[in-house]
Amino acid sequence: MPGLLPTQMVRPLLEQDPSVAAARAGLEAARQEAGILESSPYEWTARLSSQRRTLQEGPAYQEWNAGIERPLRLPGKASADRDIGKATIEEAQARYGEALHEAARDLLSLWLDWLAAERGRELAGVNRQSAQESLSAVEKRLRAGDASQLDARLAQAELAEQQRMENDAKTQAAVAWGRLHARFPGLGQEVKTWPTPVPLTQNTAFWRERILAENDELKTAQAQLQKAQAEAERARADKLPDPTVGIYTASEVGGRERITGLSVSMPIPGGQRGPRAAKSLQLVEVMRQQVESKKRELEAEIANAIASTQGAYTSLQLAEAGAAAMQDNARLMQRAYALGEADLQALLLARRQATAAAQSALAARAGAAKNYYLLLIDAHLVWDLDHE
Known about the structure:
8 helices; single chain; alpha+beta; Outer membrane efflux proteins (OEP)
């Protein structure tokens, strides 16, 4: 995209953003969590006991008992835990992608705001120079006796106003750069080429399908639905408790009797396991409706973005045509005044109209560029966002 910040410059800025770094750390934590769920949550338990047997008539005997045991996770529960871990990673990946996406939108918006402020500063400088030329023309006619002191004062007042506006424009440019630099401190001021918005050539269906397929908020909701489904399956499987299996050995009667054996125990299911499984199924339905709600919300946002982009491009063409016409009119009035064919009031009016039209064209260009490139970011068509 000509004029757009290059990908090799943008990617480090995005990766260093605190919100993106936090999401990246969250992704690593999710991978650790998936690894924990992959392995069984149970551990071996060692048991050791010692006792002394004393007969009513006879000697006393030292006895002991030792064993180890461990609960066994049933196969259905292990499969559900793996699905939960997979969904956890997918959710974290979607959140990481959304953090990149939002950082990219912020970068583009702040950068275009700064470019617009810089163009506004340049435009204010041109307007100030034009006011200076008008004052020079008035002073020349005044010396020739062809203008009044009132005209000179009006021209001086107009110059002072343009100087004030130029100072305001410089301040706005400094503020815009300060915001951009504070948010993305690694960005330099060398890229000042204005990106050119172009008309949308693809139809609405293309943008809808592309943005929905790449939208990380929707992916997050879908991953949460998958996680809820896996957790519901885990709760259903948990209606049957996990058994505990162990082996033990014992020595009794002073070692005259040696005992070895196998132990199996299982909790008796209580009345809460069924309701917990039913609750998990209801949570699945909640997440399913949230996915559908998010999809409809995104479809409305996409339709608005497409309409705004198309309308902004049309407004840009109209604004630039009007600005060009007003600028030509101001030049003609400047020449006419220098030749004594027009009065100062007409010249100043033409200058103000040209200034207003130029500012409108600048705002239209900024709006069209922002709408167009934000749409490309939402579709993950720039800055390698489609690789995340």
